[in-house]
Design a protein that fits this description.
Elements (H helix, E strand, L loop, with lengths): L10 H15 L3 E2 L3 H9 L51 E7 L20 E4 L15 E4 L8 E2 L3 E2 L25
Parallel strand pairs: 2-5
Antiparallel strand pairs: 1-6, 2-3, 3-4
Length: 183
């Protein structure tokens, strides 16, 4: 319905929507960075959830692992907003981020934008039909950008692209180097 989260959209679909909306509105729309997602979700808190160390039951949407789609209400805006007025930051659907997925850097960064390239894109927010642990403010996941599935949607940000330079692609782990693909 018109008041439900969007599902089954690839990262490319989400970016194309932002480009379409930018053209239509004459303002810049884009996917949020991973850092922006966590910052917005936390809304100044340092606890596991923006509600504290526990996430009240009214935020739960079938919080157990499912391998196949389960009918769950994905109506947006039915839970209380965080202290910054943002809704559905925990557990509605995972949301595509601008960043490529990769290990965190050990040093401090300002307005990080992830890596210059990679295999998967970051998703944030946690989703329905996953364990409650995965709805934490700090939780991150990754998915192949072409993936369209029942757990991932997106949220848009009305802002210019960050000016931060992406990090170079990380060196592969030792176990992933010099892998021969033929027998």
């Amino acid at each position: 319905a018109d008041n439900e989260a969007v599902l089954f959209v690839s990262w490319h679909d989400a970016v194309a929507f932002c480009e379409w909306l930018t053209e239509k509105e004459g303002k810049t729309y884009r996917l949020p960075t991973e850092a922006e997602c966590e910052y917005a979700c936390r809304a100044g808190t340092t606890t596991a959830y923006n509600t504290g160390d526990e996430l009240p039951g009214l935020y739960h949407r079938h919080q157990q692992i499912e391998w196949n789609p389960v009918a769950v209400s994905l109506e947006v805006g039915t839970t209380p907003p965080n202290t910054w007025g943002l809704q559905d930051m925990h557990g509605l659907v995972d949301e595509w981020c601008l960043d490529w997925y990769g290990p965190y850097m050990a040093d401090n960064q300002t307005d990080p934008v992830g890596y210059v390239s990679g295999i998967s894109k970051v998703t944030r927010g946690g989703s329905h039909s996953v364990e409650l642990f995965y709805l934490r403010s700090a939780n991150r996941s990754g998915a192949i950008p072409d993936d369209r599935q029942w757990l991932i949607g997106f949220r848009v940000v009305q802002a210019d692209m960050p000016a931060t330079t992406p990090l170079p692609e990380p060196e592969p782990n030792l176990w992933a180097q010099n892998v021969q693909q033929d027998s």
